[in-house]
Amino acid sequence: MPLSEKAIVCACEDVSVHDIDDAIAHGFADIESLKRYTGLGTGPCQGKSCEVGAMRICAQRRAVPPEAQVPFRARPPLVPTSLAAYSGLPGQVTGPRITTAGLRPTWGKGPHPLQPQTPLPDRVDVAIIGGGIMGLALAWNLAGRGAGRILVLERGYLCEGASGRNGGGVRAQWTTPTLIELAKESIEFMGRFAQELGINVWLRKGGYLFLAHDQETLNRIEYGADLQKRYGLPTRVIGPGEAGEIVPQLDTSKFIAASWNPEDGVVFPWPFLWGYADGARKRGALVEPFTRASGIEVSEGRVRAVQTDRGRVAADRVVIAAGAWSPSVARLAGVELPNVPYRHEIVSSEPLKPFLGPLVSMLGTGLYFSQSMRGEIVGGMGDPDEPPGLNQASSLRFMARYGRALGELVPQVRAVKLLRQWAGCYDVTPDHSPVLGETPGVAGLLQMSGFVGHGFMMAPAVGRRMAEWMGGSKDEIFERYSLRRFAEGRLIQETFIIG
Amino acid sequence: MRISLDGQDIEAQEGDTIAAALLRARITTFTRSIKYHRPRGPFCLAGSCGQCLMRVDGVPSLPACRVKAQEGMVCERQNGPLGVEKDLFRAADFLFRDGLDHHHLLTGSRLLGRVALEVARRLAGLGELPAQVPAPDRGELRVVEVAIVGGGPAGLAAARAAGARALLIEREARTGGAELLFGAGQEHGAGQAGLLLDAECVGLYANDTTVPGNTLLAVRLRDRILAIVAGRAIVATGGVSQPLPFPGVDRPGVYAARGLLGLGASVGRKLAVVGDGDEQQRCAEALSKRGYEIVLVNGVPRRALGNPVKALDTADGTRIRCDAVAIALPPAPLHELASCAGAKARFDGKGFPVETDDEGRTSVPWLFAAGTAAGKPAVPSGEIAGRAACR
After folding, report:
1. Residues B110, A194: C-beta atoms closer than 8 Å
2. Range 141-160 of B in CB contact (< 8 A) with A
């Protein structure tokens, strides 16, 4: 069997010149999108041997202007480094902290050099601010219902925000009925996403295993399992022995029980956005990356228009679906949201042969990890001392804390090498439940935010229901989860938050 | 000294890396590629490219070109379930000649999609879980005024200019950097600066600890990490050998020219040296001194043939027989440490040098870059950055 004539650019991930041309043809010429679409630079060498070759091809094809010929955001570590090495870092690294500035854009000041040159329409029916999973799912659903002219504004590339930075976990194990229902419907949709939207999202139902380390947490998972059973989920509370059969590498002395739903899973997050964006465009919606909303015009209690760095667009309705940036977007309309952004960090390991079925999470520490379809252990861990702020920079502190926590729970992965770390922002509300529906005092300004790091796994259902509600159907969640609840003291507490 | 590869004994010499020992034994297929199971062997021979990863003493995916051979070391090749030499999954490369578009594979059918998922899941990944369970090694934290990463000519010049206030961090056991490959690099030392050898800086962060200093470096010393808080940092990490995308460039037997210069073994007699200009000339001369017979090849070859590569079709259609191919392109600036801390870098046709001002300062006020990493001449830019970082 002779070797094929592929001209390989990225040897780690087997990406050829042909693949790069294909990605450019699909509109993924900017280096961040090119990396995500082809996978180049995501292997053990992290782009050190392919990034230059790929950019040379992009430059030769005139696919990107010189100002956009920048490297993709480099991610520590520089070379693969074991979990054990990080876990020994001293207390000064993980102890008291000061606040640091986030990262600036790689391309410099002002609009992105790849901002589309075409004019935006003067008027649309719905302008959606935020081209993450929420905004795009809504756009696709609205466009499918003939809801008029729809415009999605995304300030960066698709996947730049939290929708492109999450760990890919999708689960129906929640402690409020609405979230259980939204997640159930969404996971069901993910199973047929490829047929609906024409791109694979690789939903792998390996289950979710929540570990409880103390009695209080055990009470929480028992409450959750009871509720989930009533909503038709197969969730069970199991002992450490059974959990150890599901994941033999776990140190079962570190927890007293676990909540197990074998039908939860993990997906590959990026194709969701591409699929929804492509689908929405095919249905006539405008999805505009590298375009920033700079103002929201409100007069006589009604939203009138969105100002962008490509001009003004009049709109009857404006939807704020900007994730952790939603409070700052809402402020453009003079509206204060109670949401607060918090950085959460993730790290991906070297690719390993499959050994880990479920996503495992320790509820006490917020540690979670799963194995991606590419074989990497992708995991993160919340930090109770993280200061609020829109910070997408990585930290050594996280690597030390994660390395220690994961190495204690799963000793066998201590010698596994970590490849790349990154950060994204959770959009955190006071009760850990979303903000949906009308804005008091500003007719036509709609909220679709506050998903506290799990919007990704709810978006298909939320997008559908919001589109139907905007079309005139009654749906009580847009009342119950409205912004008004904070003023009226009707909080809806969700307790299964991880990461 | 003997090591074993998939159960077979291999003779190794004192000072050999695993890669050197295997190449001397004429073993060129080190692994199979992740998607198409194409045969792969070492390329950069400098720990950058990821083409020579193998399981060593129970630890997956270690770079054979960086791990020193030791008596009794057990090496196992990965990702070839039925043997890496004759891996049956290489059919994937043959069946999907133009490539396999995983995004749009079998999207039409839910059932076939599930089958694809199960197959893809089983084929994914490179190594098996480690067999070793190391105990966490205690790291520590040091504080310095100026941290200089990279002990090549630029880093050394910066160290001499900065003096005792600086600490020079070098990943090899001696300073000199890439110049050592050409028999130079030992004329100058680090002056009064402190020296940390066998130390690889793997991360450069904004310092979020309460220890005063702008930046926090993660420096790997064998299996532990030393955290260093520094007031300022100078990145003088040099460059990385680059391949050239033509069919067959990824086959065993195609090496970075600089990689071969640093290799303690010969890969044959006749070398086709692909490249242009000074870098090609310089590498060809140095390789010729190592005893290779050299054929210079300009332009992008049409294809490399054989496994390991035994011939090269040039752009003008000539077929050149050879024992191996060496790619001699100017090393691309290793910008990653600086750019992950937020410093800007821009494509110049050959790579992404870190942008610096006349003083070597990057777009991050406490971060400087010098030498190849900044696309500047090593010694003057190192001196300037070393002085500016102390101001």
Report:
1. yes
2. 141
- Asked if A414 lies within 8 A of B130 by C-beta distance, the reply is yes
Place of tokens 């870190």: B354
Architecture of the A8-72 domain? Orthogonal Bundle (1.10)
Sign of CA dihedral B348, B354, B359, B365: positive
* Global ipTM: 0.96
Boundaries of every domain in chain A: 8-72
Domains and CATH numbers, chain B: 2-123 (3.10.20.440), 140-239+332-389 (3.50.50.60), 254-328 (3.50.50.60)
Q: Across the interface, which of A85, A104, A199 has its CB nearest the CB of B220?
A: A85
CA dist., res. A434 & res. B122, Å (int):
37
Give me the DSSP letters along B168-229: EE-SSSSS-GGGGGGT-S-S---TTSEEE-SEEEEEEEE--BSSSSSEEEEEEETTEEEEEE
Binary contact (A7, B249; C-beta < 8 A)? yes
The encoded tokens of residue B386 equal: 């070393």
**Model pTM?**
0.96
Single-letter amino acid code for the residue at A304: R
Contact A273, A159 (CB under 8 A): yes
Nearest-angstrom CA–CA distance, B35 and B38? 8
pLDDT digits (tens, 9 = 90+) for A427-442: 999 999 999 999 999 9
Cβ contacts from A onto B, under 8 A:
329
Q: What single-letter amino acid sits at A2?
A: P
Residues of A in contact with B127 (CB under 8 A): 350-353
Tell me whether residue B210 is exposed, middle or buried, using C-beta atoms within 10 angstroms of its C-beta: 0 to 12, 13 to 18, 19 or more.
exposed
With 0-12 / 13-18 / 19 or more C-beta atoms within 10 angstroms meaning exposed / middle / buried, residue B15 is exposed
The rounded distance, in Å, linking the Cα atoms of A422 and A127 is 30
**DSSP for residue A166:** S
Tokens standing for B273? 């040296």
Per-residue pLDDT of B300-325, as tens digits, reads: 999 999 999 999 999 999 999 999 99
Sign of the alpha-carbon dihedral angle for B259, B262, B266, B270: positive
